[in-house]
Amino acid sequence: MAIVNHGRATDRAELTDQWGTIKRLSRYLLHERKKMIGIGLLILGSTIGSVGGPLLIGFAIDDWIVNQQTGTIWPLLVGLVSLFIGQSVTLWIQQFLMIDVAQNAIFRLRTELFHALQQLPIPFYDKRRHGELMSRVTNDVDQISNTLNSAVIQIVSSVLTLGTITALMIWLSPTLTVITLMIIPLMFLSIKWITKRTGPSFKETQKAVGDLNGYIEETVSGQKLVKAFSQEERVLAEFEEKSSRLKKAAYRAQLFSGAIPKVMNLLNNGSFALIAGVGGYLALTGTQVTVGVIVIFVEYARQFTRPLNDLANQFNTLLSAIAGAERVFAIMDEPKEASKDGAKDVDLTRGKVEFKDISFGYEEGERTIKDISFTANPGDTVAFVGPTGAGKTTVTNLLGRFYEPQEGQIFIDDIPLDKMTLHSTRQAMAFVLQDPFLFEGTIRENIRYGRLQASDEEVIEAAKLANAHRFIKKLPRGYDTVLSQDDSGISQGQRQLLSIARAFIAKPTILILDEATSSIDTITEIYIQEALKRLMVGRTSFVIAHRLNTIRQADQIIVLKDGEMIESGTHTELVRRRGFYADLVEKQTAIS
Ligand SMILES: Nc1ncnc2c1ncn2[C@@H]1O[C@H](COP(=O)(O)OP(=O)(O)OP(=O)(O)O)[C@@H](O)[C@H]1O
């Protein structure tokens, strides 16, 4: 008993959720209230057209055929033709208007979703596969779009048609109405049985699509790695498993939803036979039913099951759109990256940075950084060294406010980070990362990404300072060379030089440099080092160093191990101390 109750409670909670999602989705449509009212009126018009036709035909049969009435039939014919033309025209206009409203609604939904994605914090992206997120922006939104285009009209017009037909049927013959309506409970029972199975299958299908897309995205972008490690077979096997999960879910969803029209057809034919039989009997034995009324009922019975059928079909589409909308809204409702209340825009011109008792973990209860404190004065170069996984990148992630420390406070120019807006912190910084990310676009656009207002002259100036101008000039299209995201047209070293130019143009107060570990040819390496040295002049710089000979001149070297700061000082001081750093230097010298 307890289990049954629990199940019902879950069903009810799910229904409330779905209802909430529908209400939220309809707000996007109701944004264009006037057009929606127009659509409503047009639906009313087309319903009158479809319901009025059989009524006129039935009356005509009784008057002109059964009762042999004489006189002109033209007004009736004109009425019928006008009804049918009016119905077609209103149907066409309502469709046109609905597509317009639906596409506008989808446009807003997609924009809001993309906005949300831009505002979500990095930890959100850490936990999700990028392909799966992309599937929400494309597949789920498409699914919603398809539903809004057609389902809304069908649902409203079906409900209206059902209401009008029922009223007219009761007025014409209560007995035949009861017989016609007998079909409804049967329909509901079969639809309920089917949708109970299709709902979860549609949900499962969309989940499987997202999962598969994520996997495809991952393997396409990591194709080099797949080949390098000869993982093709494993990748194929994993793909097949995911693809087969999708196949099974889609099969189940389609199989059951495809059964709906067939079941409806069967019930429809049964109802037709009953009306004809009972109606015929009533017409022959009594006076309450005429031949015209039987014709009207036969037609209405057909018209009655069609909207029910449509409702059942649309219910499935609606369910999958709701599943999509739930996933889209879930992203929109994720907590956004936001500046703290009362945070102010500040101009950070000096570049003094202080970490005070900072502790941080990526996961609850984990400590990746343990109680770190240091101060970098304006213009200082601070280098982080330590074994892999020691927490060097994490420290710079905290400075960039991609993550929030759980304990302690970070100050820039003596202002705590949470007292200034995220924008002011990041505006003051530029990052030159190990694997420079370049966007699809021209070299000029990629450099200008550092500061969008920069002029063409400033772009060239930055490229010159970054030692990139020389190689750019040699490219056939120069600054207008279009780069694709994984462009192999330019080397890794040249990508680094472009990212240095991008940092130059940003004119940052604070620089964060993650030294490239991949092998870059000696000449480009010299260009990079020279450009970086130039970039660091007059700026507070944090360098994640992999080769110790590049940081000998640093004002402060911080040695991290397992998230702890175990040593700090200048190169000379640390070598003299004969600790962990001195050991590292010795080992690296021995290797080289
Ligand atoms: N986004 C993340 N989510 C969870 N754990 C993470 C994340 N990024 C890093 N870590 C973990 O935090 C620890 C410190 O990583 P971090 O990248 O800061 O080290 P690092 O010193 O920069 O290493 P490397 O020299 O290899 O780049 C590692 O154990 C790493 O696995």
Automatic annotation (TrEMBL):
Tagged with keyword Flavoprotein: no
UniProt topology in membrane: Multi-pass membrane protein
GO MF assignments: ABC-type oligopeptide transporter activity; ATP binding; ATP hydrolysis activity
Keywords: ATP-binding, Cell membrane, Membrane, Nucleotide-binding, Transmembrane, Transmembrane helix, Transport
Compartments reported by the entry: Cell membrane
Residue span(s) of domain ABC transporter: 353-587
SMART domains: AAA
Main location: membrane
All residue ranges annotated as the ABC transmembrane type-1 domain in the record: 37-320
Protein name, as recorded: ABC transporter ATP-binding protein
Taxonomic source organism: Mangrovibacillus cuniculi
